[in-house]
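In the design runs reported in the main text, the only information available to the sequence generator was the tokenized backbone. The following block is the verbatim input for one such run; it is reproduced so that readers can re-run the procedure and compare outputs position by position.
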């Protein structure tokens, strides 16, 4: 009986945490503000491949603005806030970067 009570309290506490995590993530991550994909990342820099159409939808991405990188899909019902995929990384836009294949793309255009 005591174990059942303890289990149900732990389960309820876990459910409350999931609801709170979904609420916080839903306020922070908004699908209509999607701009592109993370191309590469290390401890000091990240390169984001910005899609022109998505950039237009959000009104541009000015220098020194912030982007959020995450794999979380807030439209799903279940968010495992303890999992690695539930991480959120705050990125600072510093400058445009060349992608590794930009030289080849320029050669093809010419």
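Verbatim output:
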């Amino acid at each position: 009986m005591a174990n059942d009570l303890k289990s149900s309290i732990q389960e309820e506490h876990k459910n409350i945490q999931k609801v709170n995590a979904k609420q916080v993530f839903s306020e922070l991550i908004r699908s209509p503000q999607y701009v592109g994909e993370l191309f590469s990342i290390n401890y000091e820099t990240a390169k984001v491949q910005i899609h022109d159409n998505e950039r237009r939808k959000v009104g541009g991405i000015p220098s020194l603005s912030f982007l959020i990188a995450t794999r979380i899909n807030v439209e799903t019902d279940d968010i495992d806030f303890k999992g690695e995929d539930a991480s959120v990384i705050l990125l600072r836009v510093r400058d445009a970067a060349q992608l590794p294949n930009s030289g080849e793309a320029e050669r093809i255009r010419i």
